[in-house]
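Pasting two entries for a bug report.
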Amino acid sequence: MLRAACAVSFWLWMVGCGGGGKVEKKAAEAPGAVGEPVSREVPSVVAGEDGRPVVAAFGDSISAGFGVPPGKGYADDLQKLIDEAALRFRVVNLGVSGDTTADGVERLQSVLAVHPAVVILEFGGNDGLRGQPVSESGKNLRKMVEGLKAAGAEVVLAGMTLPRNYGPEYIGAFDKMYMDVAKEYRLVRIPFLLDGVGGHADLMQPDGIHPNVTGAEMVARTAMKYLEPVLARLDKGSGLKQ
């Protein structure tokens, strides 16, 4: 398991873990290697439930809020921040733990079914942790972006990064993937969704992978920093402002 390679918390790469060597292919491809639980239970959502435009948190366990009590995930905290900003949008949690970009492509139609005005697209972490080809992950991100934009949704791309022991070449290509996709489609990009949270034991769950309740609040604030201008622009002149 990847965490064993570092002998301590998974996110200790933030403070110098790893020797610069790439993980072995066997470890990268092992189903349980990433330390993230796999759940194929796709959230059931009623579109247009209360008339507010939908902001879809579309991603993996970070979006799903794995390991925190109901109502305490980053998507829930994001709703509170949106309400405090007097912006009438409804956050819909469409995160599924364990999902890769390929899984996201498969779930795209279920996301389009809620007619989102904005989608926070948070995928790629599981691809990278399993050592999947960056080119394939990039293709899948592009498929999702194109499908969402074709349906009229604004896309905010949430970037992730990888432990240092994956090696500079793979990490560099992985990080560049998000920059390239954002530039190609002119997307708002969150450079690193777990900024200020990953690598901080007091903000992470014991697994060292997922934010705890306090960490989730910080993740929501990071997302809101990039999301709020998008919502304000969409809201302008729409008569939706409270």
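Entry 2 (this is the one that rendered wrong in the viewer):
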Amino acid sequence: MPSASSLGTVRAVRLVEVGKPLVEADVDLMLLGPHDIRVVVEAAGICHSDAHYRSGARRIPGTPITPGHEIAGRVLEVGGHVSRVSVDDRVAIHYLVSCGLCSPCLEGREQFCEPGEMVGFHRDGGYAEMVTVPARNAHILPDSIPFEMGAIMMCSTSTSLHALRRGRLVPGERVAVFGVGGLGVSAIKLAQALGAAEVYGIDVNDEKLAVAEALGAQPVPFRKSHRIEADIALEMVGSPEVMKTAVGCLAVAGRAVAVGITNEAFPLDSFNEITVKEAEILGAADHLASEIDELIEMVDSGTVDLSDVVTGTVPLEAGAVNDALDRLDAFGSGIRTVIVPGS
């Protein structure tokens, strides 16, 4: 990261100690590198991954850190060698900082970049008034897409698109979405837009089942999900029990895609659930910059409507952010909460 300078400070909500609530702090502005941009954060999504970082369910490299990897805002300043974006551009930020030169990057798998970093995980993210990132991570956000929507597109929606691409969805297939949260709602909408014949929305929460039904998916209580049959099953929760059920509901040649974060193994009847069905279990890690461009085009054209995915906004205050993270930890109601620093 660039070194600290005497450029002043910005207000942020930070993870200072794992297992403890986030706290408010003033953070030094960083020097702007020649290939960097400084962005005024207009919206920052609160992702379930951030709750995992806070709790320690996923180990974060170090603290203190400013979380927030779903970011949209307006360009305030550009480095001397930046030409792809300009001051005052509306942008959404791809959270994977990759080099573009190593073997994974050249092979189109930049999420495995050898020196790569993740905004809000390895380097300070969007729970702040401003964020500094490489210009190559900025994607122009059309005026038709509000900042709040642009922010959540940078993780929950783009990761769902990547999961469906990993699952090789073919029009006419059946898709089971396990977990009707931020990722799950986006996955339902994307599966429908990409031609799925039937989409099942599976959850333990009655309010989220009602959301799935309102979106045109078939709502299925988790306790009954073993009765369905799907060509693609997306596990969005991060639960061994849910992953086992997702694999168990696959049709012949079906594909189960693991997206949720967990450190636990899940049981598998390899012969009956995989071998005799020629089924597959796939992982989906993050997403690609090219998928962000595809997604922005889909939303801008009206092919996918994300207007109801953001179900709440909060100010850049530690108490409000911690409350939102608590609700995620409890798998409570609501789909996606977004920090709006200017509110």
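Dev reply: Rendering is fixed now. As a check, the viewer should reflect this: Residues 168-283 form a domain with the Rossmann fold fold (CATH 3.40.50.720).
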